[in-house]
Specification:
Helix content: over 70%
Largest sheet: none
Number of domains: 2
Strand content: under 5%
Distance between the termini: 92 Å
């Protein structure tokens, strides 16, 4: 009887927090069903700062400690509560939601078990994306700048957390690989299309045409713009980390799959500009060329990334890149030959280089090594 509980508001708050902190199997579903109608009936005096902080801390703990199915329900409860709180007219709303969102974000990356952490990151990112899109829609509908503040704080938190995590990375290849994999999962989940709403059609209803073109979403461009800026920041942080810590192989071997999946001229140009270069080729000519020629920075992953980026060079720029390969070590040249073979399409500079003397010498050397020493050399 919710009305009776509301009259005993202290007991109601205590019961909600106890359910969150000590709740047993199945109570996530119970709370999910009752929370929104309960919140709508709560008196305003319950919405103080201490209650909000305690509520969110308990929710975040439960989302981590529960089983997979329960965990998804707890995260959904957290999502619903953040949506609800954002519609309330209190001075502390932005502060509390930003705190809760940032804490939620930080916690999902700290779980030791790989499968649990991966699931938490994936499902949380999907809900965080939905939350940001909800605030974008509310901003358009209500013209209330509180929603603009919330969505701005969301992306600032994303960038700040990633930057802090990379800055604190130990110089260990396994730790670098784990964090890059986690960030890749997070970004892929933020990029995932919205889930299609399921609908039951009864016998007396006319069939719904699923091929109908959806109405244009005015929030899509704003969301995509913020997402692209975040992805650029993540990539920039890793490129800077690789150089400053001389961790090229650990970084680029694992970052390669993210870059291949995100493959976009606009993205790479934005990345180059964020690093201080006016074009993709000027970035290559000033930095990447030096790295792939360096004894400390060259690695196969970096060479493959260079080839992904070079898909957007002009023919003259591509020819200049191949001319610079005269400076490569034999092993880096072999990586380059292999990467050339993986191109989506070949252009004239690719064909000219593949038929050139440097490639022929490298292939001959590879064949000699594969054949082994001749009898008269044994």
């Amino acid at each position: 009887d919710l009305d009776a509980w509301v009259k005993k508001k202290d007991l109601l708050v205590k019961r909600l927090l106890e359910m969150l902190e000590y709740g047993c199997w199945g109570e996530a579903s119970l709370l999910s069903d009752t929370l929104r109608p309960a919140l709508d009936k709560l008196p305003p005096e319950l919405y103080d700062n201490n209650f909000q902080m305690a509520f969110f801390n308990a929710l975040e703990d439960r989302s981590i400690l529960s089983s997979r199915s329960e965990r998804q329900t707890w995260i959904s409860v957290l999502f619903d509560y953040l949506c609800h709180l954002s519609t309330q007219k209190h001075d502390y709303v932005v502060e509390v939601i930003t705190y809760a969102h940032r804490t939620w974000l930080e916690k999902i990356f700290t779980i030791r078990d790989d499968n649990t952490r991966s699931h938490l990151i994936k499902y949380s990112a999907i809900k965080m994306a939905a939350l940001d899109k909800y605030w974008l829609r509310k901003s358009i509908e209500s013209n209330d700048n509180i929603y603009d503040k919330l969505t701005r704080n969301t992306w600032l938190s994303f960038g700040a957390v990633v930057e802090t995590q990379v800055d604190k990375l130990p110089l260990d290849d396994a730790d670098v690989a784990r964090l890059i994999n986690d960030h890749t999962t997070f970004i892929k989940s933020l990029r995932a299309p919205d889930e299609k709403k399921k609908r039951i059609t009864f016998e007396d209803e006319s069939a719904v045409d699923d091929n109908t073109e959806p109405e244009p979403d005015k929030t899509a461009d704003r969301y995509q713009h913020s997402l692209n800026e975040f992805i650029v920041k993540v990539l920039r942080v890793y490129f800077e980390f690789a150089e400053h810590k001389q961790m090229s192989s650990a970084v680029f071997t694992n970052l390669r799959s993210m870059i291949v999946e995100l493959d976009s001229e606009q993205l790479f140009v934005s990345l180059a500009k964020s690093l201080g270069y006016s074009s993709l080729y000027s970035w290559y000519d000033s930095v990447l060329k030096r790295w792939i020629c360096s004894d400390t920075m060259r690695c196969k992953g970096l060479v493959e990334i260079v080839f992904v980026i070079s898909n957007y060079f002009t023919d003259n720029e591509l020819e200049s890149m191949y001319n610079s390969f005269q400076l490569l070590s034999p092993v880096a040249l072999e990586w380059s030959i292999e990467a050339t073979g993986l191109r989506r399409t070949w252009r004239e500079p690719d064909r000219l280089w593949a038929r050139g003397d440097a490639v022929e010498r490298s292939v001959r050397a590879l064949c000699e090594r594969a054949r082994g020493p001749r009898d008269d050399e044994r």
